[in-house]
Amino acid sequence: MAKIPMGDFGNALPEVQQTRLPQSNMGDFANTVGNLGQSLSDYGQEQNKEQRQQEVANKVAELNNNKIADQQAQLHIDEAYSTKFSDAYADIKNRVGNGSLSAQQANIELTQKSDDIFKQLQPNLPLASVNNLRDEWNSSVNKSRASFAPLQIKADEQMQHTQLDQASQIYGRYADPMEGQQKFDSYVSQ
Question: Compositionally biased, Polar residues: which spans (predicted)?
Fold first, then answer.
């Protein structure tokens, strides 16, 4: 037969003693993980900041380098303009001034010479600046063209004056002064 327990049956709930779980380091671990996460985030932000600073420094260096290249190109252009182009222009201008070249012929020749000079310069110019420098060059060349027409007019007037003087001398030597005068008048009226 089985044993029946004897005891206080009036208390239906047994007495429970409070159990204490061993104290965990979970709070410290959570703080450590949180701090690690914050440290990684700070490190990432610092890396991004350094990368942006490096990109800005690279861009500033590139812009400075481009500025120096543009300045150097401008010097090449100005030197060629003040030497090669200036010499060619002076030669053409002299020929227009003495009547051996018309203003239209001078414009064509000036265009050819200036194009040749610029083509020689072009390989040494920064690609980003070539169009601007070409426009500047053409503007300067076009300003030079303005002197050809007045020179041609002056040369033509001088040539006419010389021819009139020459005609006067030729027709003044005629034996019959009336015939010489008629020929001179005919020449002038042409």
Answer: 16-46
